[in-house]
UniProtKB/TrEMBL annotation:
Cellular location(s): Endomembrane system; Membrane
Protein name: Beta-1,3-glucosyltransferase isoform X1
Bilayer disposition of the protein: Single-pass membrane protein; Single-pass type II membrane protein
Source domain of life: Eukaryota
GO molecular function: glycosyltransferase activity
Any matching Pfam family: Fringe
Keywords from the named record: Glycosyltransferase, Membrane, Signal, Signal-anchor, Transferase, Transmembrane, Transmembrane helix
Phylogenetic placement of the source organism: Eukaryota, Metazoa, Chordata, Craniata, Vertebrata
Principal location class: membrane
Signal peptide positions on this chain: 1-33
Organism: Betta splendens
GO cellular component: endomembrane system; membrane
Gene3D superfamilies: 3.90.550.50
Length: 492
């Protein structure tokens, strides 16, 4: 894994240049393709200011913020805006200037989004000048004076893992049924509220990562897996709950969170979203009727792809036999059809299984934040082998969104399935990673049902849950909460 040197990491900011940065973050998405050498010069300047602003044992100059930003132009812009807000607030507070890093700028390697691969670099490059590393989502707001008061309660020389505590109410498949006898006994951080590591702990974690392999090659839920790694089967640290790390605003909060469902203007039109539903003959009578009774009416462009033609639905027979797993051959056939004259031209492709529940109005609202001319993939982001040199992918069960530009690049590259029953989501992810197409995460996509009582900030939802049988009264109340699309099925 190649890591960029400390002088080529982030766009640093001096105080006279603050207003120039505010102008920069308002540039159109294409502006982020500028020569990285400008960023290199800014990075060196910010690092120098950080090192020379130390006035006492513990001010903001000893805090490094890591904004968990992503590579797509929308997310890079939001990360830059958050950084500018933090630095402006720090200048007004006059208690030292913190270092503010954008995660996606730390390395050309995309796998650092899962945090663990980034720790050795953070430790070696910024550890010597920082006492705390505070991790924020792009939409997490921080009150610096309140945060300093929180951090001052904990001895900086000791190992600390701070945040808003989440726990499972029941054993979860995505957490590999960990702590199945007492799921609530184990806590992990709510990313929206922010979380923090003391440098002492970060150093030790970085050292461990250099000398041992993870127990699993898969990254499914990074926040839970990070907490497990830090806990180290009881030999490490558990998360320390901090009430000032908040999602909902209160008077005492040091951090707050807005929403994972942003408002970027008018939603994408129905005609700009093509929906491809993967099904097979054995589910025509069982699953397809649920789709038709719920969310199909919100789609202007939708086709069902099956292994047989069925006029009652109707389905499109792609000429491929059904496979019990993987479906790579079917998915690539759908990609080719999407670009062909056989279907109306659309900017976005959504590929879902026939047991997926979706709020299409919320998806179209989310897509308004992205440029369809930019090659990108959007969904619930998983990873394989990320600590070393693996790849990311959007898991198929939660729905996969691809821009037209991404589909075009993918097919023109010659990338293909090694077998028709290969895992389509992983093959797509590997191809997109090799093409440097951003695999973009949204917490609004869920392979399994989002646990709204645990993480409400992830429940402004878009494509949702593997297994329509989960559409119990709970799920239907959830899906009805904002747009009433699924109310009639609930009544049934």
């Amino acid at each position: 894994m190649e890591i960029v040197s400390r002088h080529s990491l982030v766009n640093g900011i001096n105080l006279p240049a603050m207003f120039l940065l505010w102008a920069a973050v308002l540039l159109p998405p294409g502006a982020f393709a500028e020569d990285r050498r400008t960023g290199h010069a800014h990075a060196a300047e910010q690092q120098e200011r950080h090192q020379h602003s130390v006035q006492g044992p513990f001010g903001l100059e000893r805090v490094a913020f890591v904004i968990q930003s992503q590579r797509s132009s929308y997310h890079a812009r939001r990360g830059s805006q958050r950084r500018a807000e933090i630095l402006q607030q720090a200048a007004e507070l006059a208690q030292g200037l913190p270092l503010v890093l954008l995660l996606h700028e730390l390395s050309d390697y995309d796998g650092i989004w899962s945090i663990l691969p980034a720790l050795p670099h953070l430790s070696s490059t910024y550890g010597p000048s920082a006492s705390w590393f505070v991790f924020l989502q792009e939409e997490t707001r921080v009150t610096l004076a309140a945060l300093l008061q929180v951090l001052h309660r904990y001895e900086e020389q000791k190992e600390w893992f701070l945040g808003k505590r989440l726990h499972d109410n029941e054993a979860s498949i995505i957490h590999h049924y960990a702590f199945s006898e007492d799921p609530a006994s184990f806590g992990y951080p709510d990313p929206g509220a922010g979380w923090a590591l003391s440098t002492a702990l970060l150093h030790r974690l970085a050292e461990r990562l250099q000398h041992e392999h993870l127990k699993s090659d898969f990254t499914i839920d990074w926040k839970h897996e990070l907490a497990l790694y830090i806990w180290d089967e009881g030999n490490g640290r558990k998360l320390t709950p901090v009430p000032e790390f908040c999602t909902t605003a209160r008077d005492s909060c040091a951090t707050t969170f807005t929403s994972y469902l942003p408002d970027c203007g008018d939603p994408v039109s129905k005609e700009d979203l093509f929906v491809a539903v993967k099904t097979c003959q054995k589910f025509h009578a069982q699953r397809v009727p649920v789709v038709k009774a719920t969310w199909e009416e919100e789609a202007a462009l939708l086709e069902y792809y099956s292994d047989v033609w069925d006029a009652s639905i109707p389905t499109v027979n792609l000429g491929l036999p059904n496979t019990d797993r993987g479906h790579c051959g079917k998915t690539f056939a759908i990609l080719r059809r999407f670009l062909s004259p056989a279907v109306p031209r659309a900017d976005w492709l959504l590929v879902v299984d026939d047991d997926t529940l979706i709020s299409l109005p919320r998806l179209r609202r989310l897509l308004s934040c992205y440029d369809p001319r930019e090659a990108l993939s959007l969904g619930e982001k998983y990873g394989y082998g990320l600590v070393h040199s693996g790849y990311s992918y959007t898991t198929g069960g939660a729905g996969m969104v691809l821009s037209r530009a991404a589909v075009s690049r993918l097919l023109s590259s010659g990338c293909s399935c090694y077998s028709d029953e290969a895992p389509d989501d992983m093959v797509l992810g590997r191809c997109l990673t090799s093409l440097r197409v951003p695999v973009t995460h949204s917490p609004l996509f869920h392979q399994v049902g989002p646990r709204c009582e645990i993480l409400p900030s992830a429940c402004d939802m878009v494509p949702e849950a593997q297994g329509w049988i989960i559409a119990s009264d709970l799920w239907l109340r959830f899906l009805c909460r904002k747009d009433q699309i699924f109310w009639q099925l609930k009544k049934k």
